[in-house]
Design a protein that fits this description.
253 residues
């Protein structure tokens, strides 16, 4: 599929389906009940469906402001969309089987699912890092404040990727050394940092876009004012990420 617009539509549709999957499983949780926390709960297909769906939609939109060749961008987005489906699909499958999706080496099948999710996570890191590097190599396009919003969003997204990789690496080591329960518990301190930093790539560019279109007054705000607002938002978001990081350091064992 070489048509960039067709690829964008496919990725947006896929993202919406993943979001819908998360909402459906929220309904399943409401009916079936059970614990919300823990390695075996309906929380995982809910949060991962919503998070991956929103991230796929956000990345598809935000990368349209990057100075990347259309064919390369389309190819990367298609791989990214497929990887998102695999991640959410594996997590959802294990939720219905009532077994943990990550760090689960109990049976050969569980090990295969767990390792597939881990490899898929590595693919996500590689793809998003390519987009992040592209955002800094060439100034992104867009209205006032958008270049800063895109670059900052990707920079903070790298924090989310690093914290996610750290959770997986730490958990795998503990699992391989026979500390299964400790492996599940070890991810808790980094979850707030991972969650907060994951969606900056959507929130900050969305703010810049809204400032360029929202009818705040009879005369639009100046570009300088809009850039200052975006810069302030970036600073606030950075403080939130730093706070989550400090909490992770203080509570990490």
């Amino acid at each position: 599929m070489k048509n960039p617009r067709a690829v964008d539509r496919l990725c947006h549709a896929t993202g919406l389906l993943l979001v819908l999957s998360g909402l459906v499983h929220l309904g399943v949780f409401a009916v079936d009940g059970g614990p919300w926390a823990g390695p075996v709960s309906w929380r995982k297909p809910v949060t991962f469906g919503l998070s991956f769906g929103l991230t796929l939609i956000a990345i598809t939109w935000v990368t349209s402001y990057l100075r990347v060749g259309p064919r390369l961008r389309s190819a990367l987005l298609l791989v990214f969309a497929a990887d998102c489906v695999v991640e959410v699909g594996g997590i959802t499958l294990q939720a219905w089987r009532r077994v943990p999706s990550h760090l689960n080496m109990e049976t050969p099948f569980d090990t295969a699912v767990s390792m597939t999710l881990a490899v898929g996570g590595g693919v996500l890191v590689a793809l998003l890092t390519v987009f992040a590097v592209a955002s800094f190599r060439h100034r992104p396009t867009g209205p006032a404040g958008m270049p800063l919003a895109v670059r900052s969003g990707f920079a903070i997204l790298l924090v989310a990727l690093a914290s996610g990789a750290a959770m997986i690496a730490r958990g795998v080591v503990l699992t391989r050394t026979g500390h299964q329960e400790a492996a599940y518990a070890s991810t808790a301190p980094l979850k707030p940092l991972h969650g907060v930093s994951l969606h900056a790539v959507l929130v900050l560019p969305a703010l810049a876009w809204l400032l360029s279109r929202w009818p705040w007054s009879d005369s639009p705000w100046s570009e300088r004012t809009r850039r200052r607002i975006v810069a302030t938002a970036v600073g606030c978001y950075a403080v939130a990420v730093a706070g989550a990081g400090a909490w992770a350091v203080l509570t990490y064992r």
